[in-house]
Amino acid sequence: MSHVAPNFWPRRCRPVLLVLALTNAPHLVAAELARFYERQAEGWFWYQTEPSVPPPTPTEPEPESKKEPPPTPSSETPAGKIASSGSAPLSAAWLRAHLEDYRLQAIDDPSPTRVALYLYLQKLALDKASRFTESFQRVVQADPYLDETTRRPVGNYANLLNRVAGEQRDQVLQTLAKEAGIWLFYRSDCPYCAAQAPVLRLLAQRQGFAIQAIALDGRPLPGGAFPDFRPDAGQAQRLRVVSTPALFLVRPPDGIVPLAQGLLSLTDLEQRILLAAHEAGWIDADSYDRTRPLVAALSVDASDAFPAEVPEDPTDFLALLRERARGGLAAGKASAADPLIVP
């Protein structure tokens, strides 16, 4: 017998069908009929039977000897737990770990004693932070290796530093342009190459760099930029050009240094030229440092020749770091008590 959807029968026949179903299937109970109508969203699959679930397996009771005794209530109060901390009482680590506990105790029991206790602990923490801030400022002000204004001024004076560094950058680039040039690898159908061309023309006008355009497809750039281009003769493959525009700094006969394979602004291009020339040894360290907007390039170097274990005495440890900040130029051990360092 084929199954027929319930909605196929006329509305007046549905009570008769229900009576026949009850007569022919006496095992159905009221709960199953209710679930049948609740599952009306199943549509044509209303006649599916639910999967049978195996009854749960009875478990044997655990022997009394194996049962763990119930935990006994601890007689230690929250305040006792706080006092048993491993940190030194009222230290910064102790306050960080337990100040919140005292606050919660004061919230649960806002008695004058508990509230005053929390407020005193909070004031202690704030006073510790204030004293640290004041000492921080004094130490930084007295030590040029820690004072960042030694490296770069703040406020409007930074503009003066940027202007001076820009003038030095132009001088170094103009000197480098007498010995080096730029190779531009491009394609005539590359819109980014056409956008890079005006930037390179401006670089040639300002700094004097010679620009040699190399066409990967043997065709000129749109707009007639760099009409003295040359077709690629295998240089792109040797230099691993994967995208255009590709820029290289060339200094015959020393070599070729990559700059970028993508669009660059004039500022980024000049900075990359300086960095590439410095890494290649074509610009000495002093000339390169003058192009950076820094008054003094001070740093603490711990890359090599550092002890395997740091000194336990903070005075000795501080003296070691100060000596490394000077670059090890001072003779003897620096005094950790005096923040002024005289080479």
TrEMBL record:
Region (Disordered): 48-85
Name of one Pfam family that matches: TraF
Signal sequence annotation: 1-30
UniProt KW keywords: Signal
Protein name: TraF-like protein
Species this chain originates from: Thiorhodococcus drewsii AZ1
